[in-house]
Amino acid sequence: MAEKKQTSAMETLREIVELMEEKDLSEVCFEEGDIKLQVKRGAAAVIPQTPHQLAIPAQIDASGLEIIRATIPGIFYRSPSPDDPAFVEVGDEVRAGDVLCIIEAMKLFNPIEAEFDCDIVEILAENSRPVEYDQPLFKVRRKSGHEEDVQ
Question: What is residue 99's predicted lDDT score, i.e. its pLDDT?
Fold first, then answer.
């Protein structure tokens, strides 16, 4: 069922992008139920997404570290542009809601945010390279006092 909802959302997004190109629009806002999109054309378009919509629970590996995975397929970028510093580096302390990276899909840039406070232990994806849905991106150590259920 979740896969069908995500497919429907992707079809809607494709229609919006086609409409923008057809009508030469620079920005479109769309709201339906709990889904809210703001799509902008230009240097860097960002689609904010509700956390529950595309969240993949972090998983714990054999070493006890949690793995943050890609929520969509696309091109992995560590920084907002080639001239800017990376969102995070190994050893950084990250707070819930901080952007870890962006994934470009269909010329739209999707921020991947931390769902909990953590330390970046390892960056598993290579900058400017394709990633698949559910591909491991980061190994992190959850901060003490934030041990919610992890699958």
Answer: 95
Structural domain tally of the chain? 1
Q: What is the CATH number of the domain that holds 35?
A: 2.40.50.100
Query: Per the structure block, which two tokens stand in for 27?
Result: 């920005």
Residue closest to 109 by CA, chosen among 68, 77, 137, 135:
77
Q: For 36-55, what is each residue's pLDDT tens digit?
A: 666 766 544 444 444 434 45
Q: Residue 85 corresponds to which amino acid?
A: P
In a domain, 105, yes or no: yes
User: What single DSSP character describes residue 8?
Assistant: H
Strand residue runs (E) in the chain: 27-32, 35-40, 59-60, 66-69, 74-77, 93-94, 99-105, 108-113, 118-123, 129-131, 136-142
| Res 60 pLDDT > 80 | no
Please state the pTM of the whole predicted model: 0.59
Give CA–CA dist 16/126, Å, rounded: 30
Compute the distance between CA of residue 58 and CA of residue 2 in angstroms, rounded to an integer: 18
State the residue range of the domain holding 109: 2-142
For 97-139, what is each residue's pLDDT tens digit?
999 999 999 889 999 999 999 999 999 999 999 999 999 999 9
